[in-house]
Amino acid sequence: MLQIRPRRVVHVIVRARELDAKVGRWDSPGDSEDIETILEMRRGDATERELSAFIRALNEDEKASLVAVMW
User: Fold this and answer.
1) What is the pLDDT of residues 24-53, one digit of tens each?
2) Between the N and C ends of the chain, which has fewer C-beta atoms within 10 Å?
3) Does 1 map to a domain?
């Protein structure tokens, strides 16, 4: 049985989708300038910071369950 509440999983999914929407799809490998531009745009991103802090605050069982769900 999962050791994480469904609303926490939903929170992670929503925030991850917000980050994904900011970056967009990579249909081609691109070049190093594209990668550097994307990394620069994400640096200091509030959504990324919030998501990272949220995941860090989960206990070990919740983190393991989140990995299992995301797999």
Assistant:
1) 655 556 555 666 776 666 677 888 889 999
2) N
3) no
| C-beta of residue 54 within 8 angstroms of C-beta of residue 15 | yes
Q: HEC states along 33-56?
A: HHHHHHHHHHCCCHHHHHHHHHHH
CA gap 1, 47 in Å, rounded = 29
H helix count then E strand count, the chain? 4, 0
**Number of domains composing the chain:** 1
- Two tokens, residue 42: 């994400």
d(CA 3, CA 30): 39
Read off the pTM. 0.72
